[in-house]
Amino acid sequence: MAFNRLIAVLPCYSLEDITKDLRDPQIAEFHAAWTVLWHPWILANSSGIPEWKRSDGSSLDVEQALVVVPSAESSAVDAPVMERMIVQNCTIATANQSRATSLSNVFSAIEEHSSSDSETVSTNSLQSQEAFIELPLPLASPPLIDLHGQQRTSIKVDDFYALGLATLLVQALTRKIHYSSNLDVVLFGEQVRTASQAFLNRDPLECERWLQSCYDQLSQERDRYFSQSAHLIDLTLLAKTTLQGSLDRQLSSQHPQNVLASTAIVERLSQANPRALQELAQGIASGRISLAGGSANTDLSTSSGQVKAETQSEDDWQDNAPVDYARQAQSTLYRRLHDARQSYLRFGINPPEVFAQMEPGIPWDFPTVLTNLGYKAALLHAFTDANYPVPTQSKIAWESSDGKTIDTIASGFVDASLPRSVFSIISDLGKQFDYHQIPTLVFAHWPDRCCDAFRDIVIATRRTSALGQWSTFANYFESTGSPYSNQKFVASQFALPFQKSRSEFQRASTGQRSIQQKRFQVESTLNFAVVADSILRGKTAFSEEATQIAIDVDQQELTTRSPRDGAPADSTLPSLNILKEKVGTAIAKSIPRSSKDSGASSGFLVLNPHSGPQRVYLSSMKQPLESTDPQRMYAIHSHSAGTDLVVDLPPMGVLQLTPSDKSSASSARSKNAIAHGPLIGSSSWLLANEFIECQIDPKSGYLRSLMVARKRGGKLSGMPAIAIDKPSLTAASQYAIPSKVSNQYLFNSPLRATIVSRGELAHEGKCYGTFSAEYTLWRGARHADITVNYKLDSGLAVSEGDSLWNLAPVWRTAWPSPTTTISTWVHGAKTKAQAVKSDGYQFYAPDLIELDDAEHRLYLTSGGSPVHRRVDSLFLETLVPMIDSRTGSHSFRLGMDWPRPYQTFLESLEEPWLVTDDLGNFQSGGSLWMVQVNQPNVRLACQKLLYDSNSKPNGMRLMIQETHGKSIKCKLSFYRDAILASKVQFDGTVIESLEIDSGEVALPITANECSFIDVSFTTQ
User: Fold this and answer.
1) For 379-400, what is each residue's pLDDT tens digit?
2) pTM of the shown model
3) With 0-12 CB in 10 A as exposed, 13-18 as middle and 19+ as buried, what is 1012?
């Protein structure tokens, strides 16, 4: 029988609206309904090419048509319309998500309809056409080659299905952009039917001729409107549950493809499927496959984002939870990513040149890190829960704050497993053809797990470039050239996934401050370890030992991410403390001494691991001490428990403290120090020194105001509270605030004072828990140290699955000016936080927060409590880390006008570094420095010892970082004159030589730059 028309019913108003109005099952049914109409038997028995119509009555007023209706929308076709089509000799069939089942339904409907018609259709004929899917092509000279460069061996029914989808998409694209389509449907239809008849007649050459002619017409139609071609990238994501047969089938595909695999996945693949690993390595070597990756420990199998989730248990996910690179220190970040690149070589695979990872945690200022490690390109896409910026172009030059760029694909990602996502290329490509310099679509999927629509696109692109051309990453980034769009992002655009429940936050916060403290202790130890090795000319190996401890700390962090095991015993801290003692002792012994009083008791050396000067506060020293450098003793006071001292340390240097004999000569050494004066604390619960004043409320025990000393007007206030979030998202939060409070002085002297406030946290007469808050202020300090402890009432119904901010202990910070701006430090770099929203927002600040009211800069350290919420223009809430489900504790600093904000944050993470010293006085005075930088917004960290060609130490590698977001020129000074310096990558590759001026390194540094510097010294 012959059909006048072939119609697929579209269950929405227009094809452009299909992704807006329909869900994936509905789109899959429409795709099946549309493509089955392109079966060769159906095309050969029709007088036109398939078309789509809406389900309303006027659209379906047709005669002698084959109408395929998606089963989910069959009810949308009114009964009178259905009856009219039957009367008008139409054949009606239903389609579901399976194309094979839909084809059977169509053939069954044709057979049933023809049985009542004079022209019957043989059942055997239909069944044979349904089973016949491939027509072998005879050998030709030269052979027929498709657009992928592969020899064409057969024609399949799938080629006709793919032609149908390509025709639909091309016509939709041209109509969307230019409101018209000039495809000659009469000629196109004749050639389609000719190809179909040749297929049925088993004439492969004739079928190939006319089928390819149809694809060529689509290419011409597309070229008429769009001058540039789209770049299509097939990206396979790997997980531990997808390393068997599905991966084998995927890797055997001959079209260009790409694989995203972390080192953990590659290692698992080497164990689970060595043959697939070999196929992957061969594909990479031949250029057919490109590898993206670089993540060190990802073993991800569950994704709640775009890519359809794999099956995996909650326990497996927690065991293999990814490490978030955005929450790591710079040195840790570099070390892990460098080690990951080297790990690929162990499995016979070259390290990827394109960085990509599935898990969240890409830092906002990543290009510098990637380029220093040797990457040439990156993917910036949140495959899981993160939210990254979507720029105006699909391919951009991602620019770091220091001006370094890396070619990046940052938009145009399509989930190849979802029909809805695949059909979205109508709007995606339409927009890119109009506005993008380099139209690019990345189709991401698990191995061999794609929807039929994506497979049709793959088949179609073997014959036509109308929809684009497939590329590997290597070919794409090499052939497309540099994009004209440079994009510089800020941290607030990288919205990382926050913990969604109390239990998740408790697990994440338990070790947060401990990890930060150990990381900084490792960095400070490594600083002096490298200096000690350099001074001692390589006779010790302290720097190697410190580096190994750093690696152990990294590994311990990985092993403590499982929430079920609890915190294991800390194996790194004892060895770190031992190493610090050895390094300090070696430094002490290496300093030239002028005299030694054998009868005197031991003194101390105080070490400063920073490249900027540091003020140190020493409490209750057991013996009277004085400094042999009088200018560095800022304040001293003796009391019944010992002696308190405030001393100023030189940059990355040491200060000698000797026992005081209280003679007139020795007293003169400390004549500039404040030895007495007014008490820090007053009877009105006011703590005051030369710089700031802290008023504690006598009734409620909260910090009523942080003020400039001897000036009226509070700059900051804060209080402990328990947030009681209402179920409604639009309702304002309520708080249990301090009541029934008692205050007392734990200590009060001319050098320091501590007030402790204890009480209940209540709301509307109900007690939600208890709290204690300790406020400490030192003479000479620009900050107050605060420690708060919470205990939720046992009668509260606290569930592990509760909202993060429901019944949550918080510290509420308030300020008087609504124009105050918030900046945060992440990775040691300063960036502005988001603008305030009416319903508040969460943001991430693992290190430090700055509040700038135009007159003063106020600071809040947030070590151990990275999650914050700004509820309006005047309030900030800091979520307090949980010890268990009901207990929280947090220690932090509130300060004002810090010269070196990030260094001050680091100082808060470590106790003063003291080394026992009884070797006599320094020859050069009471203090000395090793390494320093002359600008307060730049910090240095020693990385490793450098050796000459004779394996003798002759220099060191430094990490230098700008922390204020300001470009500047600085000078680096060392305990020996520098004779050669160069900026290098992390692996030592020289980038550029640096100027040496009188033994100092002159270095221009851009805002937030983080670089590595190799410096060689004189041999004297």
Assistant:
1) 999 887 677 888 888 999 999 8
2) 0.78
3) buried
